[in-house]
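Input structure tokens:
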């Protein structure tokens, strides 16, 4: 009986040792930040070099690390996660996006175009709407936005685009807060709420979290004004998105005056849309934005 117990204890001891060794193996710290090309499947991830002037990726055949070196003007590396959760890197121009003017009046006009195949997939239906708007902001933070936007029915491709008008006003108060008035459509009735700050004159650099802005080209015009083209793109599965800003950068004032904006999207090669806006900017200094709320909001 004692021999059987000893044998059972020995077996239990060996099983315990095997379990402990297995657990300790899996609990070894994982290595992060190092590109591993030796894994069984092809590693599509990439990473910047330690110096930040190039990026590393895995080759297909030898499964070894290769390096793409960045050169001026795209002299630095940056990485972001794509639609498939893979880390992708590229060389970019490290120039920073300049701020837009803090105050003034910005007016724009343009088109919203929509192209989509019908149910048969043979005929391409083209629709277009005219859009426009303007923004004003003064040094006190008073803000006025009047903008028309277009929408297109995806069910009825022959329906005309619907253009709606939106008005937003921020009026400063004595305690430092703002009264925000909002109006949408043909109604003259505005909703009112208290907020703590007013928006920037133009928040044109923020689109969404997709892609990153990059200086594509620049050319000096005159009086220290540089014509710049900034681009941004994102590829999500079978969808592609591209944005472009054309601005005049004033080095003395350290701001970029908007000239043109383009947004283009391709949804799985069956639906396209493009928004094009042409801008004009007029500085106003410390002067009032010249908006009478009673003329725009009858419930004020």
């Amino acid at each position: 009986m004692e021999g059987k117990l000893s044998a059972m204890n020995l077996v239990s001891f060996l099983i315990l040792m095997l379990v402990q060794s297995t657990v300790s193996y899996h609990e070894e710290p994982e290595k992060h930040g190092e590109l591993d090309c030796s894994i069984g499947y092809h590693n599509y991830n990439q990473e910047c070099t330690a110096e930040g002037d190039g990026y590393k990726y895995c080759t297909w055949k030898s499964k070894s690390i290769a390096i793409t070196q960045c050169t001026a003007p795209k002299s630095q590396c940056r990485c972001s996660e794509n639609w498939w959760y893979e880390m992708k890197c590229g060389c970019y121009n490290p120039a920073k996006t300049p701020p837009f003017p803090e105050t003034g009046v910005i007016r724009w006009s343009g088109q919203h175009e929509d192209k989509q195949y019908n149910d048969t997939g043979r005929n391409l239906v083209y629709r277009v709407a005219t859009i426009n708007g303007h923004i004003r902001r003064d040094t006190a933070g008073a803000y006025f936005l009047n903008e028309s936007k277009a929408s297109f029915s995806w069910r009825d491709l022959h329906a005309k685009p619907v253009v709606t008008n939106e008005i937003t006003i921020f009026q400063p108060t004595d305690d430092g807060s703002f009264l925000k008035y909002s109006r949408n459509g043909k109604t003259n009735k505005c909703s009112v709420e208290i907020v703590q700050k007013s928006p920037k004159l133009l928040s044109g650099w923020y689109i969404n979290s997709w892609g990153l802005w990059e200086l594509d080209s620049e050319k000096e015009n005159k009086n220290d004004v540089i014509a710049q083209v900034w681009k941004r793109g994102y590829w999500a599965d079978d969808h592609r998105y591209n944005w472009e800003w054309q601005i005049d950068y004033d080095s003395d004032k350290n701001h970029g005056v908007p000239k043109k904006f383009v947004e283009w999207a391709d949804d799985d090669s069956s639906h396209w849309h493009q928004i094009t806006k042409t801008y004009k900017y007029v500085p106003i200094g410390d002067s009032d934005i010249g908006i009478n709320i009673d003329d725009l909001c009858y419930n004020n």
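The two ends are 97 Å apart (CA to CA). The helical segments are 2-26, 293-296.
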